[in-house]
Records
---
Amino acid sequence: MKDKRLSLEQAVADLIRDGDSIVMGACLESDIPFAATHEIIRQGKRELEVVAPISDASTDMLIGAGCVGAVTGAWVGNVSAGLGHNYRRIMEGAARGRLRVNDHSNFSLGMALTAGAYGIPYMPLRSLLGSDILRSNPAFRVERNPFVRDQDDPVVLVPPLRPDVAVFCVQRADPGGGCHHWGSEGVMREAGLAAERVILLAEEIVAPEVIASDPNRVPFPPFRVAAVVEATAACHPSPMTGVWRRDTAFFNAYHDRSRTPEGFQEWLEEWVLGVNGHAGYRARLDERIDSLRIRGKALAAPTNYAAE
Amino acid sequence: MKDKRLSLEQAVADLIRDGDSIVMGACLESDIPFAATHEIIRQGKRELEVVAPISDASTDMLIGAGCVGAVTGAWVGNVSAGLGHNYRRIMEGAARGRLRVNDHSNFSLGMALTAGAYGIPYMPLRSLLGSDILRSNPAFRVERNPFVRDQDDPVVLVPPLRPDVAVFCVQRADPGGGCHHWGSEGVMREAGLAAERVILLAEEIVAPEVIASDPNRVPFPPFRVAAVVEATAACHPSPMTGVWRRDTAFFNAYHDRSRTPEGFQEWLEEWVLGVNGHAGYRARLDERIDSLRIRGKALAAPTNYAAE
Amino acid sequence: MHHDYSTRELMIVAAAREIRDGEVVFVGMRLPMAAYGVARQTHAPNAVGLYECGLARHEPAQGMIHTMGDPPNQIGAVWATGTVAVMGLLQAGRVDAGFIGGAEIDRFGNINTSYIGGWTKPRVKLPGSGGAADIAAMSRRLLAIMSHEKHRLVPRVSYVTSAGYLDGGESRHRAGLTWGGPAAVITDRCVLRPHGPENELHLASLHPGQDFAEVAAHTGWELKAMPGMAGTPPPTEAEMAALRRVDPDGYWR
Amino acid sequence: MHHDYSTRELMIVAAAREIRDGEVVFVGMRLPMAAYGVARQTHAPNAVGLYECGLARHEPAQGMIHTMGDPPNQIGAVWATGTVAVMGLLQAGRVDAGFIGGAEIDRFGNINTSYIGGWTKPRVKLPGSGGAADIAAMSRRLLAIMSHEKHRLVPRVSYVTSAGYLDGGESRHRAGLTWGGPAAVITDRCVLRPHGPENELHLASLHPGQDFAEVAAHTGWELKAMPGMAGTPPPTEAEMAALRRVDPDGYWR
């Protein structure tokens, strides 16, 4: 088995290129790979197309840091605090031409990734009929349902998405790219199968036997994974089921401080540019990170895979 | 929580009607609900449309017993032994008009159920192009990909399937319809979401807390389940991950004995019509069933869902 | 009848009353989460809640949560899966009611959460649809929760993120949405419902202390009252007790 | 070189040699399962096996299994999921090679496992496609395993379950299948491969003890030899040792 372990710096440097389309976490509100968001900013990646099925404040941070050329997504903001100030600033100002927005809904984005994952040429939907999303994003088509002859039955056709990169936080992974994820999945499975290169930020590295002990908890096969990064609390301030509580105060502070460009720059300096990688970020969080750690046990019922 | 427990006899009597379209297990080779196959035969259901993504020998048994008016499926036979004699007899004889066959592949059937599950008006595929399945089953359409302008890019359009009933074997279920299933899933999730009425044959009935301890192992939500039947070894002779080995000799004996109509009738009398329900079947298996039980332990790695 | 409640608490209770027992409900964020909890503990003990991150729950989460992905919403879920599966149930017509919020709504119940002032040069860029466009299109009944201000309740939204009755009358159906549409809009002043052949939003019930003229003055179109318009009943003791259990710290006070 | 092997064992070894290291392989039932095991243990230690019931494996199952859903194929899998996910990878072009069997094959590699004698009044009703039509359409390379009899290797199959090169030449591509097609047909007498602009199956290698005239006599079309036609190398000691580990009881002898 090939050992796919890389440092966060190396994984971002080697596998994310300027101009790539990239999914930064796909579970909507949990398991957002903020450690990779920060490393992308530190490495000064440019012109990324962020494929964003609600990645909480990650997209707003990347936009503010000048890494983003396009957003293909359903939602950009700060889930518990409200609007994304960086997103607003660029879209409401003279520089709006520098950011292309390809509007989607959560479902159409999930379906576009499903089509990408499974080689489906395009995905017909009923959702989005009547919505101006069909006008502001010309990638969609509305056609007649060819199975209905006697009346006009419009359907929305969604083209597939095959992102260059997808980055996910998972509770545990093995060095070869096998992993376990639990809790709500968002569009993680589809994004992981659709993307050309998958980077895992694993809370814990375990032996391949641990992953193989429960193959139903594996979201996509190891051969689709390009790199495994060991990175504790890579999802902070977003939550991870069974491991980390959500740091809502941190999201709120980001919201308040990013209200002005200067405030955002200060925040960026404090939490991203001025820290020594993800270890430095964790060190800056200090005792706060301990208070977020879930310490209780609520174990899944035993499940037996024995064959004899 | 509504208690959805029923006896096998009652579930089949109340929820399966003559003429219904029905999925009898969806995991291809494992977890086939043969106990329900037998009860359907005992109750003399007629004109069923069996939606069959390889349900091992179950479909051949139902055809031989005269329960089936149509097969919408990818494969009918006996997986380890070969052809299905009852299927051959009717299709190669003068009575072939009594059985309608709607040819599918495994993937097109899975995609038709996906479309049914998710309200997708139809599913475009690239698979099946060039296959005569598109000629023998007129339900498919071939259309041009409307996203490709400058050349002819044919795609297959698969209409959705929404079966009336789906019957599944699961390792454990609670009285309200929550369940856990593990091992390969075939098209179980899609069939369970697409079907109007789901009947679970549970190896074991457990408290709702056991199911809620591991929500990622639940294939479809409890509100989609109409009935929960406690039925040990309901999958025999097919295997169930972690619980039952496959009884290949039983499949082979069925294959040999069903070679003639008389032989099939004798087999049916011995194993279905002449036994007192599923308990009678199990009693007839006697020590054989004990030898098939998996006794080893190979437990999935612990998984923590604690929130604090 | 309970006398000590805030407007937001009244809105939560009014929203809870829109959920019928046994229904499958697409629960949004914030207020609807509390509304689902109140409904489950009062008149709708068999309701099922769906969350677009990929969860189904019977019991609401224990204690305050800030997003649907928070650990207290994961533990005790009856189904944990992906967005496509839960939103697929919506498109398959299996969801009775769905909640969304919005920045702008018009007299036909169309909702804008994307662009104020046109999408090419927006005056305000809002976060976008999230799942709202899907919930509005595919729920059997849409329930919207809004702040009642004249610049939010407008004659015509500048961008339809989430389809209501579009141009009124049969236009939603003609667009291909053969079911659904707004059933109630719960504001901090009243409850609006579609009425008449045009499906225009009418005043269905006034919250305690509100009067028609004042509400109409804060509405961007010429607001009409529904026949049988009544007052919104204040929260009952049972409803308030349920809300206290869902929101022990009074976050929604 | 190993001297004590059966024809079926030679077929398994010949099939194993078609798997390249690091490839993703759609493994069918029966012989290909053993072939995958031999390949993994000899020249292709990094191959990945996919099974249409919804499994991916690195190591082959321990001991004999009769179906891909058997418990020994479940334990130790590296991914357990559904049919749509694994076959979706196939349609997405992510599967390098796929195995199928067949009752009838023609000179352009089209395979019939559905109806002998037409679908309206079949002389023999075969089980149908299962996943074969998908594997044939969407694998980057199709590998077929057949019993070499004149009534099975026919000029034109009466029903194309699984598309080969259709009418030969560019017709597969014109039908919309922009990749794939049979790369090898492994029979009990020889290995056939497509050759020339028509993509007709030619004799690529004769198994030990076979001669061209005899094989041609058992083939339903005028069989031609490929340039550079050779003999199929007998199993090596390493290959036979690997096969013994996969098939300790000699089921495939």
Note: The mean pLDDT of chain D is 95.
---
Amino acid sequence: MVQLTMAKALNEGLRAAMERDPKVILMGEDIGKLGGVFRVTDGLQKDFGEDRVFDTPLAESGIVGTAIGLAMRGYRPVCEIQFDGFVFPAYDQIVSQLAKMHARSRGRVKMPIVIRIPFGGGIGAVEHHSESPEAYFAHTAGLKVMACSNPIDAHFMIQQAIASNDPVIFLEPKRRYWEKADVDPTAMPDPLEQARVVRSGTDVTLIAYGPMVKTCLDAAAAAEEDGRSLEVVDLRSLSPLDFQTVFESVRRTRRAVVVHEASSFVGLGAEISARLSEELYYEMEAPVLRVTGYDAPYPPSRVEEEFLPDLDRVLHIVDKSLEY
Amino acid sequence: MVQLTMAKALNEGLRAAMERDPKVILMGEDIGKLGGVFRVTDGLQKDFGEDRVFDTPLAESGIVGTAIGLAMRGYRPVCEIQFDGFVFPAYDQIVSQLAKMHARSRGRVKMPIVIRIPFGGGIGAVEHHSESPEAYFAHTAGLKVMACSNPIDAHFMIQQAIASNDPVIFLEPKRRYWEKADVDPTAMPDPLEQARVVRSGTDVTLIAYGPMVKTCLDAAAAAEEDGRSLEVVDLRSLSPLDFQTVFESVRRTRRAVVVHEASSFVGLGAEISARLSEELYYEMEAPVLRVTGYDAPYPPSRVEEEFLPDLDRVLHIVDKSLEY
Amino acid sequence: MTVAQPAADPHLIQLLTPEGERLHHPDYDVDLTDEEYRSLYRDLVLVRRIDVEATALQRQGELGIWAALLGQEAAQVGSGRALRPQDFAFPTYREHGVAWCRDVDPLKLLGLFRGATNGDWDPEETRFALYTIVIGSQTLHATGYAMGVTKDGAVGSGDVLKDEAVIAYFGDGASSQGDVNEAFVWASVYNAPIVFFCQNNQWGISTPAATQSRIPLYKRAEGFGFPGVRVDGNDVLATYAVTRQALDSARTGQGPTLIEAFTYRMGAHTTSDDPTRYRLSSELEAWKLKDPLERMKAFLFKQQVADASFIEAVEGEADALASRIRKGCLEMPDPSPMVMFDQVYEEMTPLLRTQAEEFATYHAGFAQGGAH
Amino acid sequence: MTVAQPAADPHLIQLLTPEGERLHHPDYDVDLTDEEYRSLYRDLVLVRRIDVEATALQRQGELGIWAALLGQEAAQVGSGRALRPQDFAFPTYREHGVAWCRDVDPLKLLGLFRGATNGDWDPEETRFALYTIVIGSQTLHATGYAMGVTKDGAVGSGDVLKDEAVIAYFGDGASSQGDVNEAFVWASVYNAPIVFFCQNNQWGISTPAATQSRIPLYKRAEGFGFPGVRVDGNDVLATYAVTRQALDSARTGQGPTLIEAFTYRMGAHTTSDDPTRYRLSSELEAWKLKDPLERMKAFLFKQQVADASFIEAVEGEADALASRIRKGCLEMPDPSPMVMFDQVYEEMTPLLRTQAEEFATYHAGFAQGGAH
Ligand SMILES: Cc1ncc(C[n+]2csc(CCOP(=O)(O)OP(=O)(O)O)c2C)c(N)n1
Ligand SMILES: Cc1ncc(C[n+]2csc(CCOP(=O)(O)OP(=O)(O)O)c2C)c(N)n1
Ligand SMILES: [Mg+2]
Ligand SMILES: [Mg+2]
């Protein structure tokens, strides 16, 4: 049991995956000597060599495109995209090539590729450094989309993502990189594609992932003082989405609020809302409500705190849910 | 009043826009002498010259990226993307540059750019020629997303899109290019961002856009024979989405089914469902149901008819809605 | 716009004139047995016949579309035969001649254009990737694959029968795509064992090559620090020689080469296209004089490597092939709709399982007359 | 990896040695008045001071981040001053020296890095586009703008005071992006009046230029059929001369040029970066000997164009500028949160209006103590 930041927990997870399988390689911008701008790959080039951990030219389509070729050759590339806002030059390779390869080849060509993306806001960054692109990937059949919310999950989920033969978009909540937890690397992790109830409650279910899980846990703690009991579900896997766990929770609480940083319009929250009303129509006592970033480009960082859902906004919407 | 195919109605709309404003220019692959693979720009290079209608090198990021520069210079570029599946190399320019320019420049830099995309399936094409990418754009703040469903709308909406100072993703249902209607070019069109009830009914509201409007109208006609009265709303504008019109309709029918070719997971249908339950929670008698393409890559064309929503599937889900 | 004439270009590598005269080149040559010369000719003929038959089947409604290779047989057979068995090829959607050289059953190509499959050959087994339709994207896959070859140490051992090389096909139009240029960056920086094989067939649908580059395309490589050569793509011998050398250069660790095969798309872009809208028939007529099959036939006759009976035998083979294709196409079963669901992921997700089950139930309902 | 030494490169255009000796070059020269020489020096000093002050403000928590131009002053001032008033520049995020030449208030740059705005200057008025962070994307915007210049007939009239040119800035790292290479395709095919100005500062964060290209970057242009030149980017006179000539070539209708300004990023990539992790201090020491300010100062003294009192006066100006910047930064108001909503579209959409109203109500609730 060691106390690790999320960044370090990912680093250790990558290390374990590389030790386990010599075909695992890391590629991306500035991941070698620098160890990545968030130091997630710190020390790995030193220990595994430039053949297995290498800096690429500055072009994201090139990163993902060559990773596809490397996967065809039997490698298991883990690509780092430096920031969320820089994944879009690779969008064609991801959506039209990576996502479809398994289906179009009738399963003959596997794409065991992980694309790691530090995502989300809240770190005072300039433009294009605080995006939440998950809906773009979740809507794409053939991709799996994961988001870790704490060091323990980060450590195991990255290893599970690497072990998966399907392509995984692996979203890391960059503003949580420095949060710490005790990680037992010998523990048995939950299945990668399973959501988890991270706090039990009876009145309303908060559904979140990545950076907003902590926000929801904080909100639930604050609500408790006001005598309201909130359950929190950490989705972990955004696609496929573990609706069973969500349904079970909402069956109990009969109310749900989805929280994410991404814009609301055609976001993950919409899907969860739609599915909940399709499945639990007679069981819910309120519509699913959403607390999200606004339907606007991410603003200059001096106002980002107003853009992002926070504890107060979550509780405000919880109140609304309880009014039904 | 002339009878025009949708392709020709668009062509006449482009012509009218070009006559009205000398800053309107058309650019894209094979739009000049060839007139585009669907002939939508047929004859326009001949009549307006190579300076205003020009073939570009084969690179979509280049098309949209240079269009942005041309717009900064005062032009109003209309870009043709040859098929839906080829817009993704331009995704970064669209999502990170085009969509954000107005906001980031505090309105100083206008982006009066239209990106025309023939979209959707049903024409027996090979891979990447039958995609429905609307959710990717609708989720992006700063873009407007339009889909025409008939020659009359096509004719006017393309002109309105060109007249707009906001960037517009203009989706043309390629399998409807050859459907005909009487177009009166002197008529007064509805506002661009307004949805329209295209068939009145009392039992269930079908909500659709682009290629699926006709499918829904056919379904409504068939349902009538069975004594069910379906209302059909043609959204026309997917973003911004005219929820007023949708709400009014569903307030009357109390039931809604959304139909689109795109996959369901985090698609437009999810958003419409979520908003309807947020707004009309006490007024609906059934959950919003969805009839969509499956959550799989578009299949080989010999099975596309099974993939796409059709009249029977729509009615099947209408039945389900009525069971609540 | 006028298209440059290959013969006039001193940089064009040619080993066979349009009239079938054998030329010699200081840097490139081939020394093939008579049997090999005949075999190349046979390939050209059979490949053209596949193409003609597929075009006819499309006209009869059996295929949704067909992208003809007419005119590009030499570029494809020359480069395809230059591959050693261990090499890996990444095609566009027009490399039927290369597919032939990789022993991909032509019916698999037809299956794709018929809409029954997305290709359905085994890329690993045939060492021939699936066709790629999004222009240029496969050049990055090829480069990554080649980087993997280097990582595996399958390069530069000195054993050309073991060391591997990769070839990436693309067109003149594709040269403008960001991906292709990124592939050039990657390949040169990592010194990857790859040959970029650009078939400049003068047109990208209706767009002339001059809209993609104002200088000859083979020169693009210079800007990235690796060699580029222009070969007469209608000359199967020159194409073979140049490609073989470039592949061997790659496999021996000397890095990438760009080959521009200067050729001509004699047919329409695809069966959906109408080239009369954008090019003059005189251009086609001029290129007909450089037909890749005719010149090889002339060479065989001139060198007395083959006689009329050989030509006839090959025609007979072609006829048999054509009828096998026709029959196979007409008999090709439609796929089960369940293919939509079953290979999206390694294991079906719950959502897809539900959709597949609902689909099955719904259609079972139809079968029982339960439909509307 | 060792970085090539500029002095050793015969292709490097230099008009001023690191020691301040004036060189002459057959193709490029400048003939400036003493006043103009002094003015260039003044720019270098002021621009560096802006940079130093901003770096200090970031250290004190007043800016979220700062991307220093330290070491690149000559490349930026030389090219920025070469622009004619009608020209249009497309920067990256590091062109503070060019911004200075375009009369963009340095406080606007600070506002961006503080997170108060996304730049907030008027691109049209300053003829300086907003900073671009997604690497390379602005090169296509610049190319499109230049195509528009051609369409407007504002090229090749023979009047250099009227005809327009465009300059696109980017880095060595950016040269690998598809967009940049597509911009080269477009610019050459349309013969656009544009100068591609690549500051090769040897590093893209921690990645050396050799990971982007195995040959000198200026040669990239050859592959696209337009000229490329390498200039000593620490030499303000050479940069000025080469850029002026390339811009005038563009404005007279001779199409694009690629300039590689060979320079060095003397500081960290940004204030978030730690270059000790990836480069040797000896490299920095070697480049310090080529400092762009020192060599210009040496030249001024050698030529007796300026004396100590001028230097002192410039320092005084720099001090005043620095305190104006500091004061302006500390006093800079935070934006109203309503900026999130009001310019997403030309007119606010119903959805945004609802969100803005809810936001306002919600915060009004807080103000009245209505929060949890
Ligand atoms: C990214 C992308 N954009 C557009 C298309 C549509 N398209 C198909 S083939 C083609 C022309 C290709 O020209 P070239 O690369 O010269 O190959 P050729 O067809 O001549 O063999 C175009 C524009 C596409 N398939 N992919
Ligand atoms: C598309 C994209 N990918 C990655 C980044 C992150 N990033 C910011 S600066 C930089 C290096 C840029 O190097 P170069 O082009 O040489 O410019 P320099 O910073 O040296 O001025 C990187 C990788 C980005 N901004 N955009
Ligand atoms: Mg071509
Ligand atoms: Mg650099």
Note: The interface with chain A takes residues 117-120, 122-124, 129-130, 132, 134, 137, 139-149, 151-152, 178-179, 182-183, 185-186, 189, 339, 343-346, 349-351 of chain C (CB under 8 Å).
